[in-house]
Amino acid sequence: MIEFQLDTASGVATYLQLVQQVRHALQLGILEPGDRLPTAQQVVAKLAINPNTVLKAYRDLEREGLVRPRPGQGTFVVGTLPRSDPAVQERFLASMTAWLRKARAAGLGPDDVEAIYRTAVRDSFAEGVA
Amino acid sequence: MTAVIETHDLGKQYGRKWALRNCTMSIPEGKVTGLVGPNGAGKTTLLSLAVGLLTPTCGSITVLGGHPGDGPAQLGKVGFIAQDTPAYAGLSVGKHLLMGAYLNANWDHELARSRIDRLGLDPRQKAGTLSGGQRAQLALTMAIAKQPDLLLLDEPVASLDPLARREFLQGLMETVAGRGGSVVLSSHLISDLERVCDYLVLIVASHVQLAGDVAGLLATHHRLSGPRRDPRSLPSGQQVIEQSHTDKQSTFLVRTDRPILDPAWTARPVTLDELVLAYLGQAQNPSPGRRPVLGVVS
Questions:
Q1: A53 touches chain B (CB under 8 A)
Q2: Nearest residue in chain B measured CA to CA from A7
Q3: How far is B140 from chain A (nearest CA, A)?
Q4: How far apart are CA B136 and CA B131, in angstroms?
């Protein structure tokens, strides 16, 4: 069983934080197929959030094929997420480092880089938010 | 969508003063609705009218399809926790539950008892000696044990310390998760409601300034900042809720169903708090035209 945490200052929608925490736990192997997620009642009793928020997060995870509700028993993990390959991570770290050196040589500071990074992440990973 | 509370041109007058006037709104079923507005907006009056503690001066109000306070059946369907969660100071906690059992047809005594147990309250203790947080929990227990379809709470956490506030909302949300039903809670502090509400009604001077599904409201409002520019030059689908300008920069809070495409803008999501403040500001400085004139500095 995992325990959810909320970061109220992050600006990330609450249901999305729950989804991300389940995905993360799957990536790290903390959650495996057959594991039960906490019930909506257990989550709201701890976090004082609206139960529909929990149900919405679980529906999203279900749509991704990661969990499935079993009536009367709870919501169970049925899918897995591949752990990111360390070799792939290393390759991207190398190209990012090369990119950052070029940015620095061009006179950009950490703030400029962060602004560019944030825009690029938003454009590349935008999740259908109208 | 079925409404749990529906009002039409509802008004309540005290002497020459209107506490609520021309109020038309609809609160959907199965939601936790936050009724938000500044002090004096008419929140308490509206809730008292919904319970039947007050009768309207004009207009109409329907609650769960019936008239507020219209007989035992209607009264049994609605639970109400008044401002500052009052209890009978001279009665013990146990006597409160006994009174609940006598006065309510659907009273769940087991639920009430186990909840008092879990909270660690002594049934022999007089309600007048409880802490604010404990008294609020007693009031919530009474309201839940009566098993209403609709639970109305008037500023339930306003006078509680942060921990008691959290515990109260946890108890409330646990109940909603367990047995469903609709909840309406009023507050002048949006931060209390941000996590628990999935529907928001913002009421300013009796008028509904904003109403909608919280997730939908957050997804359709954006804070844009960029080089100074005339709001009239924004795409027609973007409604300006709030704006501020320096000689070089403009910042807007806009409502739009479409994505923000203009690369000149830095767009970021808004919090519910920002959103409410922007609409309150709009209510206080209503502009005749939707697009106020602005001299553009080139």
A1: yes
A2: B195
A3: 15
A4: 9
A70/A117 same-domain check = no
In a domain, A7, yes or no: no
Q: Which of B31, B173, B266 sits opposite A49 (nearest CB)?
A: B173
Q: Rounded to whole angstroms, how far apart are CA atoms B130 and B281? A: 39
| B196 to A41: CB separation less than 8 angstroms, yes or no | no
Task: Quickly count helices (H) and strands (E) in chain B.
Answer: 9, 13
DSSP state of A31: S
A8-63 pLDDT per residue, tens: 777 788 899 999 999 999 988 889 999 999 999 999 989 999 999 999 999 999 99
Neighbours of A60 (CB within 10 A): 17
CA distance A113 to chain B (A): 15
Same domain? A70 vs A90 = no
| Residue among B118, B163, B168, B173 with most chain A CBs within 10 A, to mutate | B173
Alpha carbon distances (Å) from A60 to A3, A15, A23, B2: 18, 9, 11, 25
pLDDT digits (tens, 9 = 90+) for B263-283: 888 888 888 888 999 998 887
Q: Are B160 and B168 in contact (CB under 8 A)?
A: yes
Same-domain pairing of B172 and B40 = yes
Sequence-distant (6+) residues with CB within 8 A of B87 are B96, B127, B128, B130, B135, B138, B139
State which residues of chain B have pLDDT below 50.
Answer: 288-298
Domain with A67, as residue range(s), is 14-77
Q: Do A44 and B259 touch (CB under 8 A)?
A: no
Domain end call among B214, B237, B262: B214
Interface contact A46, partner B, CB < 8 A: yes
A101 touches B: beta carbon within 8 Å? no
DSSP state letter for B231: G
- Domain range for B74: 3-214
